[in-house]
Design a protein that fits this description.
The complex is a heterodimer of chains A (about 260) and B (about 700).
Chain A (H helix, E strand, L loop, with lengths): L4 H12 L17 H10 L6 E9 L5 H10 L12 E10 L2 E10 L6 H4 L8 E7 L3 H16 L7 E7 L6 H17 L2 E4 L8 H31 L16 H12 L1
Parallel strand pairs in A: 1-3, 1-4, 4-5, 5-6
Antiparallel strand pairs in A: 2-3
Helix pairs in contact in A: 1-7, 2-7, 5-6
Chain B lengths: L1 H73 L3 H13 L2 H9 L3 H32 L2 H10 L6 H28 L11 H28 L4 H26 L2 H13 L8 H36 L5 H17 L1 H30 L11 H19 L3 H28 L5 H8 L1 H13 L6 H43 L7 H44 L10 H9 L4 H18 L2 H23 L6 H21 L4 H4 L1 H10 L24 H10 L5 H6 L3
The chains are: A alpha/beta (about 260), B mainly alpha (about 700).
Bound molecules: guanosine-5'-triphosphate (GTP) and magnesium ion (MG).
Chain lengths: ~260, ~700
């Protein structure tokens, strides 16, 4: 279990809310929604496990499996081993005292495995569309991949990321590709990142960002649900809480938690 | 100083002794050193002697080998010859080098050359003899020479040659089988799964080959070599599988069927393939995959066990490397890839099969009087179970999970949508009941119908149908939610069985859990839908009826004298009638809804009655006897409601009971006997302001007294 608080402290403080490029990012907030923070604070240790489903799609050989392996197992393999059907990894976190899992579904890029892989698109909180920075064609194909994945999901229910891999091979061509990628990301309403599984550059930062956004989303959904019930009962006035400005700053919460853990 | 001088001679003595002692020690030391160096020399000499003996032995051996090989070869005793070569090959190379430098170097050199020639000759002979034996299919000879290869250091060659022989056997048998397939009578019992059967024969053949020949490989080649043998065999297996699958695809028109399915899924206008026609082929493909999984599991187990023995002393990297080789063999062999491809098509076709059959079940939905649910629920779950069951029978976890996902989507989106739309049409609340209750409404209906230019009694009939449809749909939704949970449980135990048999990779368990929990979440969505439907029913069918009945309370005076009180006792003015109405109304729901839903509905109804009655009370006025009358009425109502529901009525009616208590007081100040520190076990549900307000309903209480109360 990666409930390593220090890991999170490091990642959340430094990276999790920072986006890769302001030209293509999903939001600019610097910390969790005020209400999410309050809720976490109140329910740390009492609520059940939260899970978000992440689906990774993109052409074959772009480096989807490598990206996931770098993050989950911190290794890199030069040899290409095509993914057959789907692979699956669970990454366990603890965010502000709440246990949290990312379920990462690594799908096959090869056309002949598409039928089976596409059966796993449903219910994705996060869709990661991956392309190879050194192969512009794979960027062109991301739109199709995204369309296929979105078809199996409720409209506006998933965060979308566009990720360029193999940043270590970067040269002038890659830089031009990146400009295109940012334009694509805007059209897809995706957040753009570029990473290298080989060197590990941006990999942890990227997944921290994914986890933070998905976590917040799932907490908000949960809150809306429980509030829906409360409103029904007629306790009123809860909706206005959604707008109240925050005075609790996130690192403060961390240090509180630290006090309890150590 | 004097003392020192006195010690002088003594010190001299000590010095002398010490010098003597030092001398002795030095002597002993050099003696010891001398001895030990001699011992060391002796040891060295002994070692050299041993080496010399060993070398002499080796040289003798070498000579023995040289002579022996010649003799053995002449006598065609290849085993003996190979044994000599083996001995020669295991000799220390430096020995040979040394022997050549000796006095007889020339002779040895010549002999050595002979020996090496013999080695080459023997290798050639063995290879040739093996090839001949293989050509003739002479198994004893094949095995004879197979055993000789490792003696000559030719492990890889031996295994590869032997595999070549075994592959030929496999191929021959496979071709015969395929011929048989082509000649199969299509009315044959096994005709529908003939390709699965053919694959089975192929796999069983290979498994038998492994079983039979594993001991000889282990004995003569040592452990850890099975991988090489099976890798060769897998090459042949792949080729044969390719042929069988090619025939299968052609004979069964697999790709065209897939294409057609894909077309009909994308464009609704396309000519639809009849789902029933897909049934046999879907079954056959899953069977084919199941056989492959079984076979792959077999070779995985065999190789793993063999590596375990062979690598027991090996370093970690070697073990990992072997594991990698094995994974690669299993995952990247053509068999695996081909099957994955077939299964991919299968998934799409199965999804189509499920969707189309579900649509059919919905279209043909029928309801039998006396039943709570209609036919489509049973049918739909039968279909979903059948499809998932078939995916399960493929033994592929990925295939199963994919089908679980498709089923979840089918139930969540398509089927739930059907039920949702039925509920959205609503429960036709008023017209029919109005008609029943009084002429006024009937006239109204007639009036409106006449205005529209028609009077249709069918209207009433179809209202009846619409009501039934709504109630049946509610039951259907509940059963769906239950069925999904049951299905999930069944699948959990099915999967546990599959995993315990060694199918599925390392993440199989987690994959299944994820997909099944997704499925369980859909069960909750049906629960939510049910909740919505029941509260709709309460709002549209019960509320409009109950409210007027409760409002009747207003027309009954509760400021009454003894005489009226007795009159009420003889002729109940309100509550009995109200209960009769409720009873009548609920009979229909009790008969038409499942016990769980009915109970849910009565729960909502009792809450509704409690709220509405309270509203009406606050508009009425009472005197002491009127309060008593209300208390009686409330008791009757509670007694009745307690019999119709399992919900705790007392709690829902707590406020009303407390109101009744207040309305029953003799004097205003009597409230203090029940309030605050005197409340005893009673928990007041009324605020002080509400208590005052209720007291105010008593026309015989003075406002000043109420105001003066300290609550
Ligand atoms: N230099 C470099 N090579 C990479 C990087 N990421 C992946 N690769 C290489 O690219 C090849 C393909 O990587 P995979 O991760 O297997 O690709 P994939 O997208 O999972 O492919 P499919 O499973 O077939 O869909 C491998 O040989 C990797 O070693 C990277 O960041 N830098
Ligand atoms: Mg991959």
């Amino acid at each position: 279990i990666r409930s390593m608080w220090s890991f999170w402290l490091k990642n959340l403080r430094q990276f999790s809310f920072s986006w890769y490029t302001p030209e293509a990012c999903l939001q600019f907030k610097e910390h969790f929604h005020a209400q999410v923070r309050t809720a976490c604070q109140q329910s740390a240790g009492t609520v059940g496990l939260k899970i978000s489903k992440v689906v990774v799609v993109g052409d074959l050989y772009v480096g989807k499996t490598s990206l996931i392996n770098r993050f989950c197992k911190d290794n890199f393999n030069r040899d290409y081993k095509a993914t057959i059907g789907v692979d699956f990894e669970i990454e366990r976190f603890e965010i502000v005292g709440i246990p949290y899992n990312l379920q990462i579904w690594d799908t096959a890029g090869q056309e002949k495995f598409k039928c089976i892989a596409s059966a796993y698109y449903r219910g994705a909180e996060v869709i990661i569309t991956v392309f190879d920075l050194a192969d512009i064609q794979t960027l062109d194909h991301t739109k199709q991949w995204l369309e296929d994945a979105l078809r199996e999901n409720e409209p506006d229910s998933s965060f979308i990321f566009l990720v360029g891999t193999k940043k270590d091979l970067s040269d002038a061509v890659c830089e031009r590709t990146e400009i295109d990628a940012i334009r694509f990301a805007n059209e897809m309403q995706a957040e753009y990142w570029s990473v290298s599984a080989k060197t590990g550059e941006n990999v942890n930062e990227f997944f921290s960002r994914v986890a933070a956004l998905a976590f917040e989303q799932s907490m908000i959904k949960e809150l809306e649900k429980t509030m829906g019930h409360m409103v029904q009962i007629g306790t009123g006035n809860l909706i206005s809480m959604l707008n109240f400005a925050s005075c609790v700053y996130f690192p403060h919460l961390c240090s509180q938690r630290l006090g309890r853990v150590f | 100083m004097v003392a020192l001088q006195r010690m002088g001679p003594n010190l001299q003595l000590i010095e002398g002794d010490a010098q003597q002692l030092a001398g002795m020690i030095a002597f002993t030391c050099s003696l010891a050193e001398n001895v030990s160096s001699k011992v060391r020399q002796l040891d060295l000499a002994k070692n050299r002697l041993y080496q010399a003996i060993q070398r002499a032995d080796d040289i003798l051996d070498l000579k023995f080998c040289m002579d022996g090989v010649q003799t053995a070869l002449r006598g065609e005793d290849y085993e003996q010859a190979a044994a000599h070569i083996h001995r020669y090959l295991s000799l220390d190379k430096s020995v040979i080098e040394l022997s050549r430098q000796g006095k007889e170097g020339g002779i040895i050199d010549a002999n050595l050359k002979l020996l090496q020639e013999s080695e080459q000759r023997l290798k050639a002979i063995v290879t040739e003899k093996f090839d001949t034996a293989m050509k003739q299919g002479d198994l004893p000879q094949v095995e004879r020479f197979f055993k000789i290869f490792p003696l000559l250091g030719l492990h890889e060659e031996g295994l590869s040659k032997f595999s070549e022989y075994l592959c030929k056997q496999v191929a021959k048998k496979a071709e015969e089988n395929l011929q048989l397939v082509m000649g199969t009578d299509m009315s044959d019992r096994r005709a529908a799964v003939i390709f699965a059967d053919t694959l089975t024969l192929l796999f069983e053949g290979i498994a038998r080959v492994v079983e039979t020949h594993q001991p000889i490989v282990e004995t003569y080649y040592g452990p850890g070599r099975l991988y090489t043998l099976i890798k060769h065999l897998q090459g042949e297996c792949d080729q044969q599988v390719e042929k069988v699958v090619e025939k299968f695809v052609k004979e069964r028109d697999y790709h065209r069927q897939f294409q057609q399915v894909q077309n009909s899924m994308m464009r609704s206008s396309a000519e639809k393939i009849e789902p029933r026609e897909l049934d046999p082929i879907l079954t056959e493909v899953t069977l084919m995959n199941a056989r492959s999984e079984l076979y792959l599991r077999f070779i995985k187990r065999r190789i793993t066990a063999d590596f375990e023995v062979g690598d027991s002393m090996a370093p970690e990297e070697v073990k990992q490397e072997h594991q990698k080789q094995l994974d690669k063999l299993l995952n990247n062999c053509l068999l695996s890839c081909t099957m994955q491809e077939l299964i991919g098509y299968y998934i799409t076709m199965e999804q189509y099969f499920m969707r189309e059959t579900v649509n059919k079940a919905v279209a043909m939905d029928s309801y039998e009087k006396g039943q709570l649910t209609s036919s489509m629920v049973d049918d739909v779950f039968y279909i979903v179970k059948k499809c998932i069951g078939r995916a399960l029978s493929s033994s592929s976890i990925d295939c199963l999970c994919a089908m679980i996902n498709h089923s979840t989507t089918e139930l969540e989106s398509d089927f739930r949508e059907v039920l949702y739309n039925k509920l959205k049409q609503g429960f036709p609340a008023t017209t029919f009941q109005d008609f029943q209750r009084g002429v006024t409404s009937a006239v109204n209906i007639m009036h409106s119908s006449l205005q529209q230019g028609k009077f249709d009694t069918k209207g009433i009939e179809s209202t009846d149908e619409a009501k039934q449809s709504f109630l049946v749909t509610l039951n259907n939704v509940e059963v769906c939610s239950e069925n999904i949970m049951t299905l999930k449980k069944t699948l959990e135990s099915d999967c546990a069985k599959l995993l315990s048999q060694g199918f599925g990779g390392e993440q199989a368990q987690a994959k299944i859990e994820s997909c099944l929990s997704d499925m369980a979440a859909v069960s909750n969505k049906f629960r939510d839908l049910l909740q919505e439907g029941v509260s709709d029913l309460n709002n549209t069918a019960i509320k409009p009826q109950v409210k007027p009945w409760i409002n009747l309370f207003l027309s009954i005076s509760h400021s009454i004298e003894e005489e009226e009180f007795s009159e009420y006792e003889a002729n109940d003015p309100w509550v009995q009638q109200f209960i009769v109405h409720l009873e009548q109304q609920m009979t229909e729901f009790k008969a038409g809804l499942s016990p769980v839903i009915y109970d849910n509905l009565t729960g909502l109804m009792t809450s509704l009655i409690a709220t509405e009655l309270e509203k009406v009370l606050l508009k009425s006025s009472f005197n002491r006897l009127g309060g008593l009358q209300f208390d009686k009425e409330l008791r009757s109502l509670i007694a009745y409601l307690t019999t119709v529901t399992t919900w705790t009525i007392r709690d829902k009616f707590a406020r009303l009971s407390q109101i009744a208590t207040i309305l029953n007081l003799e004097r205003v100040t009597e409230i203090l006997d029940y309030w605050g520190p005197n409340s005893g076990p009673l928990t007041w549900r009324l605020t002080p302001a509400e208590v005052r307000r209720v007291l105010g309903l008593r026309k015989d209480f003075r406002d000043e007294d109420i105001k003066r109360l300290r609550l």
